[in-house]
Design a protein that fits this description.
- The protein is an alpha+beta fold.
- The protein folds into 3 domains: 12-70 and 209-239, Pseudouridine synthase, CATH 3.30.2350.10; 73-206, Pseudouridine synthase, CATH 3.30.2350.10; 245-320, Archaeosine Trna-guanine Transglycosylase, Chain: A, domain 4 (Roll).
- The chain is built from 8 helices and 19 strands.
- It has helices at 24-35, 65-69, 106-114, 137-142, 181-192, 229-234, 252-259, 279-282, and strands spanning 12-18, 40-42, 51-58, 73-81, 83-85, 94-97, 118-122, 131-132, 135-136, 152-165, 168-175, 196-206, 209-210, 215-216, 247-250, 264-265, 286-292, 298-304, 309-315.
- The strands form 4 sheets. Strands 1, 2, 3, 4, 7, 10, 11, 12, 13 and 14 form a 10-stranded mixed beta sheet that branches. A 5-stranded mixed beta sheet has the order 15-17-18-19-16.
- Strand 2 and strand 3 (51-58) form a beta hairpin.
- The chain is globular.
């Protein structure tokens, strides 16, 4: 007999404004305790130093956490020029101090920043949350261990200089998954010839979620249980995690067929947001958000091939489907 899970079968997304000094997993466990939830997971760790947007998935929403993990991110960071540290941030010991160019201005910095826009290669820091044999690298680094890391190709979509108050500069970075802001800041410092490290780091967006969606840590810090109507104010519907995909509404017959694992023929594919696309795009495979026509219930994700055949990719369990107003 299967062991019964403790807690409530809650389903949805809670976006947390993670505070500094708290690990992502500790934040997840505290929120899970306060909500008395059965199943939960976060969508990619933020460093303890970092603050900001941390989406937490509960129940059936955990099926889509990988999508958020792979989504683009946005950060605002404050960097200290003239110093490098063991961890590339303010928590490490100072390794070297170099002079910062006294007349360094926004005009001088712009061509430097331009070198880091687009695709770049980064080697993860030993003080990152990347795991080696299940152990975060930063834990190995604290034991004095050094593990070989392969360089990764990442993309910097936007790199904006927000402020220059020497020896500090502030940057806004919109980037692909797997981008290490500490590495970026350190590399910028090396090009400037003075070195640099991160002093403050705040994630302002993760996929579709930004700080306007985020719940304050103060709601959970005391560890008190949260229930009743308060849950409605905290939880976002499951499908908010996948709003990047076009929406398709299915009739009752097609819904039943898809749930039974059958392929459904969609003819014609009238999908909002795709009607004006070129034939070259239409002839590709698309991931779609699926909804039940009778009540607007979100069903999950499906894959539509060029032959207009739809198959399920990841569906909610039928015994936990809940009304959805999105």
């Amino acid at each position: 007999m299967a062991k019964r899970r403790k807690g409530l079968p809650l389903h949805g997304v809670v976006v947390l404004d993670k505070p500094q000094g708290v690990t992502s997993n500790a934040a997840l466990q505290k929120v899970r305790w306060c909500l008395n939830a059965q199943k939960a997971g976060h969508t990619g760790a933020l460093d303890p130093l970092a603050t900001g947007v941390l989406p937490l998935c509960f129940g059936e929403a955990t099926k889509f956490s990988q999508i958020l993990l792979e989504s683009d991110k946005e950060y605002v960071t404050r960097a200290r020029l003239g110093q490098t540290t063991t961890t590339s941030d303010a928590e490490g010991e100072v390794l070297e101090e170099r002079d910062v160019p006294l007349e360094l201005s926004a005009v001088d910095l712009e061509p430097i920043l331009e070198r880091f826009r687009g695709e770049i290669d980064q080697t993860p820091s030993m003080y990152s949350a990347l795991k080696h044999n299940g152990v975060p690298l930063y834990k190995l680094a604290r034991k004095g261990q050094e593990i070989e890391r392969k360089a990764r190709r990442v993309r910097i979509y936007e790199l904006e200089l927000l402020e220059v108050t020497l020896p500090y500069i502030s940057l806004r970075v919109r980037c692909s998954k797997g981008t290490y802001i500490r590495n970026l800041v350190e590399d910028i410092g090396e090009v400037l010839g003075c070195g640099a490290h991160v002093v403050e780091l705040r994630r302002t967006r993760c996929g579709p979620f930004d700080l306007s969606h985020a719940q304050s840590w103060s709601l959970f810090e005391s560890g008190e249980r949260i229930s009743g109507t308060q849950l409605d104010d905290i939880f976002l519907p499951i499908d908010t995690a996948v709003l990047e995909f076009p929406k398709l509404i299915l009739n009752q017959m097609d819904t039943g067929s898809l749930i039974r694992g059958q392929t459904v023929k969609i003819s014609p594919p009238e999908i909002p947001g795709m009607a004006g696309e070129a034939d070259s795009v239409k002839n590709q495979t698309h991931i779609l958000r699926l909804y039940r026509e009778t009540d607007g219930q979100f069903l999950g994700l499906g894959e539509l091939n060029p032959a207009n055949e739809l198959k399920s990719v990841r569906l909610l369990n039928t015994d936990v489907l809940v009304p959805n107003q999105v």
